[in-house]
């Protein structure tokens, strides 16, 4: 006897993840929910099904033309150039599987002596595009292409780049002050600045989030930041660039997003004061660093 009963439909639930482009993406998942698979999609959204759908193709295009992705491509190319110049450094000297100090210095690493004696001020920016090795680059790209892209979508690329570069420069400035004899490279200060800015953003816009979502978001962020700060004090890591990059990003973001808070919006004089004070603080850090450097307060050696 044939069974004419209709098949029982599978129960599904809707989950919201962030797609490959950093924008929210809704996904239907069967019940019971496989949280391990969802976590995998969250970490690597390229595998969110169906990967070849027109909607996902559009997301890939957005991702490819994002500032986060463009920066990552430049940083990958620069690491290849660094290694091609002078080969790999011995792992006993550079545990991050990367280039020699000579190669990094040639391409624009933070070098206080060169900034002071040869006026190479671009060395406050160029270290952002350089990395100390494959491990260093992979760690930064993991954050930049995931969390960085999500934050970029929330802010827009222009604001993202402002916070990114201001944080990197401030981090490098304090690296000059705190570690004047070391060569420094990496985008970690910039990325920590993005995280610092995001903390400020979600605090300012707290009322726009549900309490549960807000607490979850701030909790995850703080755990990530604490872990990064702990590793910032490992040998060979520039802790000052990390710590002050974070602070610089927070200050910069406060200047950019403070007006979104209803209380601040009602007080025009406060809004204008913030717009004036935040850039002044950032500029003051740069000027103070150069002043200490060129007055000889920092021990970087005498110019030949």
TrEMBL record:
This is rhomboid protease. Keywords: Hydrolase, Membrane, Protease, Serine protease, Transmembrane, Transmembrane helix. GO terms for molecular function: serine-type endopeptidase activity. It comes from Entamoeba histolytica (strain ATCC 30459 / HM-1:IMSS / ABRM). Residues 120-257 form the Peptidase S54 rhomboid domain. Its main location: membrane. Its EC number is 3.4.21.105. It catalyses: Cleaves type-1 transmembrane domains using a catalytic dyad composed of serine and histidine that are contributed by different transmembrane domains. It comes from the Eukaryota. GO terms for biological process: proteolysis. It is a multi-pass membrane protein.
